[in-house]
Amino acid sequence: MKQALLGFCVLLLASCRAPLSSSAVPAPLPERPQGRQGSASAKFAHIFSFNGSNGREPAATLIDVNGTLYGTTYAGGANDEGTAFALTASGSQTLLHSFKGGKD
Known about the structure:
Radius of gyration: 17 Å
């Protein structure tokens, strides 16, 4: 059920984008830079830790909408059935929903 909710959220968020005009052509992807490709410290920073009440075991890929990341967890939250959350780049989390289990 959590995956269905996440899928619905992805479709809902995707529908919020302005449609491309028929003459719009996507730009080619840039070349990958050479050098420190494998260095996580050069590309990532730790901005948030789950503590159980706000979720545990993050699931799936985060969705970026205007700089806010949306995602779900498998466990944690009010019922220990997982959560849906929003996270800013500064590390501020908003708990959107605590799953109840079953048909929730």
